[in-house]
Amino acid sequence: MTRPPLNRRLAEFGTTIFAEMSALAARTGAINLGQGFPDTDGPEEIREAAVRALRDGRGNQYPPGPGVPELRSAVADHQRDRYGLAYDPDTEVLVTAGATEAIAAALLALVEPGDEVVALEPYYDSYAACVAMAGGTRVPVTLRPHEGAYVLDLDELRAAVTDRTRLILLNTPHNPTGTVLTRAELTAVAELAIERDLLVVTDEVYEHLVFDGAEHVPIASLPGMRERTVTIGSAGKTFSFTGWKVGWITASPELTSAVRSAKQFLTYVSSGPFQYAIAEALRLPATYFDTLRADLQAKRDLLSEGLAQAGFEVYRPAGTYFVTTDIRPLGDEDGFAFCRSLPERAGVVAIPNAVFYDHREAGAPFVRFAFCKKTEVLEEAVSRLKRLA
Ligand SMILES: *Cc1c(COP(=O)(O)O)cnc(C)c1O
Prior knowledge:
Elements: H1 17-28, E1 31-32, H2 44-55, H3 69-83, E2 93-97, H4 98-110, E3 116-121, H5 125-133, E4 137-142, E5 144-146, E6 149-151, H6 154-160, E7 165-171, H7 183-195, E8 199-203, E9 229-234, H8 235-239, E10 246-250, H9 253-263, H10 272-281, H11 286-309, E11 313-315, E12 322-326, H12 335-346, E13 348-349, E14 351-352, H13 360-363, E15 366-370, H14 375-385
Parallel strand pairs: 1-13, 3-4, 3-7, 7-8, 8-9
Antiparallel strand pairs: 2-10, 5-6, 9-10, 11-12, 12-15, 14-15
Helix pairs in contact: 1-12, 2-10, 3-10, 4-5, 4-9, 11-14
The chain binds pyridoxal-5'-phosphate (PLP).
């Protein structure tokens, strides 16, 4: 072959660290706190709802392009009841193959080659790849550790916006740092978007996983933002069915129809029977969401305390199911080397945060652990990690 097969747009995204680290976990028998998927399935009644849909022949053939009406109205009701955001289920809701497709379709639909996309770094790995596929240029604004949490520097955000900026790509609650942007921070982001006439694409897949009474604020609910915001949601994290790949966007008719234009040539449709089941899941009583949150908060505390005792500096997350640590108190500096040796040293797998950075050196000493695992698995991990101390 005269030239490498992978094109220049994607050359830097050849393989993901998750594959390498999961293979390492399998090979060494280490506890895998790398990739963020729960080790228990979601509610039995929702699984049964999927079985019923399959048996009753609902969704076994191509569902409607925008998603089944039951799910679109459940999404619209969810946004209205939780956040006071009214969306028309027929023109302002689009079901996607997980949040992953929603991110890809939104960026492919809204970004012109040469447009700049401002995103909060460290970022979820698909953002950079999707900006690249759209021919855009990513402009990272780095969240920095400050008094035990990662914070957004609003001046840095303002300085990152240029005449070529098309949109701001937000993520709150934020993976991997666990930061939940406050109403005041989001208000400042909204003012900037309005002043510079920018679109906002906001990834809110962890909207239900906020701790210590923190509030999740959708930026679309702030004045002047509804018409310029694409909000992305997903059933994967909220209902512990990451394999079902049911996600959605809510946005104005113009934005929804633009995203749909890209989406129809990616998957067209997906997850037929699961869409009916998730329509029921979104209507579960408040106790479901409260129990999920309380359970994960206890797991956050268990793992955070264990990591602190093992010698890590811990950034206790306000949301998501990840905790970011600093390995420097352990005498280490390079997260990659640390994560490659951790199975041998302590029988645990984690992810080096540097993979989520363009400024790799800014992320070098940070390592992410997932706590969406059974309590006994976390207890075992914590006891193994004590070997490091
Ligand atoms: C898991 C995750 C996604 C992907 O969600 P799916 O619905 O599984 O496609 C998107 N964004 C963030 C920040 C995530 O952590």
